[in-house]
Design a protein that fits this description.
mainly alpha, 91% helix
Length: 160
């Protein structure tokens, strides 16, 4: 091989050097770089999975927020309906109570007016009786007895 210009010892030394270089590059350069690239790849995949998970969580949260919002609106409408119905019931009860009170006042006023009328009639009859008695005394003072005067007075009052 020397005829071709190849030195066998030099070639073996270069092969050994190449093997050592290959071993050192593999041990100190290639494996750490591939490990670093694998870790980076795993981090990127984890980041993508986390982003998808966050996106799904966000969509779920938005859906849940929409449900809560809808339920809140429904509940608010129900509360408003109940409040309106309660207000109507209370208003009706208050109006009925006021009407009952007015009716009682009117009845009391009528009964009081009737009592006053009766008292006035009794007083008027008493006064008229006294006046009739005086008139009879003056007109027929000596001619009638006390019993006859009372009879005449009663018949005059009955005519009134």
């Amino acid at each position: 091989m020397e005829a071709l210009g190849i030195d066998l010892k030099l070639m073996i030394a270069q092969l050994v050097n190449f093997g050592i270089l290959l071993f050192l590059l593999n041990k100190f350069l290639y494996k750490p770089i591939t490990n670093m690239l694998d870790e980076r790849k795993n981090k990127v995949e984890t980041g993508i999975k986390d982003a998808e998970s966050a996106k799904n969580n966000l969509e779920n949260a938005e859906d849940q927020a929409e449900k809560i919002k809808t339920e809140a609106k429904t509940e608010a409408n129900e509360i408003l309906k109940n409040a309106h119905a309660q207000a109507i019931l209370e208003t009706s009860a208050t109006i009925k109570k006021a009407n009952d009170q007015v009716d009682r006042l009117i009845e009391n006023a009528k009964s009081e007016a009737e009592n006053m009328k009766k008292k006035a009639l009794i007083e008027a009859k008493g006064e008229i009786t006294g006046l009739i008695g005086l008139a009879l005394d003056k007109v027929i003072s000596d001619e009638l007895s006390k019993d006859q005067k009372e009879k005449l007075t009663k018949s005059a009052l009955a005519d009134l």
